[in-house]
Amino acid sequence: MTAKIVFDRVGKDFPIRDSVESFTAIEEFSLAVKAGEFVVIVGPSGCGKSTLLDLLAGLTTASSGRVLVAGEPVSGPGLDRGIVFQQYALLPWRTAQSNVEFGLEAIGVARRARANRAREFLDLVGLSGFEKRYPHELSGGMRQRVAIARSLAYDPDILLMDEPFAALDAQTRESLQDELLRIWQRTGKTIVFVTHGIEEAVYLGNRVAVMTSRPGRLKEVLSIDLGPRSVDADLRSSPIFGRYRHEVWSLLHEKETV
Ligand SMILES: Nc1ncnc2c1ncn2[C@@H]1O[C@H](COP(=O)(O)OP(=O)(O)OP(=O)(O)O)[C@@H](O)[C@H]1O
């Protein structure tokens, strides 16, 4: 099967202000993601994780190498890719329902279909009954749920998530992680999720791509198999989780000593 997403020896340089030199943020980054995979990119602050998502989203272009989505070079933003950022990025003057409808208006979905679709996706993220609330009337976790519903509502094949739960308290983060896994299983989306949290990476990813910084490079890709998940089990305390956590930690730590 051909990969849904391909980073092929991607490099990204940024100009340095008042200088002819440039700063290499990413170097020789190669990674292929299959349709339906949940890949987490983990790495220290500044290693280029957000830049990789920006490249996938078509918000910036590579200095070298290629970024392909469904076999085609990325040439700009597209409705095949939904993005969820750390900041909720909701429109404060619109209700939850109306925020979810926003993206659907842009693609010309008729009013009634729009309303139905928005309700359906608010339900999917556990927000039935909160349709009429404004962002300031929702908790941080609820606002991030609205942002996820908004991205899912126009049915992108790919979901790009940039530390979407970083601003949330631990308990809310854990419940949203479970919800995201449930949504992923139900919808079969391809997800690329960026975080600097080792536990978050191990908990969510089918595969975890570990990066090192200065310049950002791919260190190793680990396949994760935590076995069957049960809502009641404290998976994060299990020996297998601990082993993966330690493996990622070691990979991230090694870079300090080379
Ligand atoms: N527009 C830009 N101009 C110049 N340098 C940039 C620009 N965007 C990012 N960088 C630099 O590129 C490097 C990678 O940044 P990026 O935001 O992708 O890292 P990150 O891994 O997502 O970091 P964090 O986890 O802290 O969000 C950083 O050193 C950053 O300063």
Can you tell me the CATH superfamily of the largest domain? Answer: P-loop containing nucleotide triphosphate hydrolases
Number of domains: 2
Q: Total number of helical segments?
A: 7
List of distinct ligands in this structure: adenosine-5'-triphosphate
Give the strand tally: 10
Q: Could you name the ranges where pLDDT drops below 50 across 5 or more consecutive residues?
A: none
Biggest beta-sheet profile: 6 strands, mixed
Structural class given helices, strands, pairing? alpha/beta
User: Strand order of the main beta sheet, please?
Assistant: 6-7-8-3-9-10
The overall pLDDT average reads 90
Cα-based radius of gyration, to the nearest Å = 19 Å
| Secondary-structure element pattern, one letter each | EEEHEEEHHHEHEHEEH
How much of the sequence is in beta strands? 15-25%
CATH class of the largest domain: Alpha Beta
Per the CATH scheme, the topology name of the largest domain is: Rossmann fold
GO molecular function: ATP binding
InterPro entries: AAA+_ATPase, ABC_transporter-like_ATP-bd, ABC_transporter-like_CS, ABC_transporter_ATP-bind, P-loop_NTPase
Protein name: ABC transporter ATP-binding protein
Keywords: ATP-binding, Nucleotide-binding, Transport
What would your notes on this structure say?
By secondary structure, this protein is of the alpha/beta class. The chain has two domains: 5-80 and 158-257, P-loop containing nucleotide triphosphate hydrolases (Rossmann fold, 3-Layer(aba) Sandwich); 88-155, no CATH class. The protein has helices spanning 49-57, 96-106, 111-124, 140-153, 170-187, 198-204, 239-257; strands at 5-15, 22-33, 38-42, 64-69, 72-73, 81-84, 158-162, 190-195, 207-212, 217-223. The protein has a six-stranded mixed β-sheet, sandwiched between helices. Strands 2-1-4-5 form a four-stranded antiparallel β-sheet, with helices on one face. α3 crosses α4 (140-153) and α6 (198-204) crosses α7. It is globular. The mean pLDDT is 90. The structure holds adenosine-5'-triphosphate. Adenosine-5'-triphosphate is lined by residues 14, 23, 25, 43, 45-51, 196.
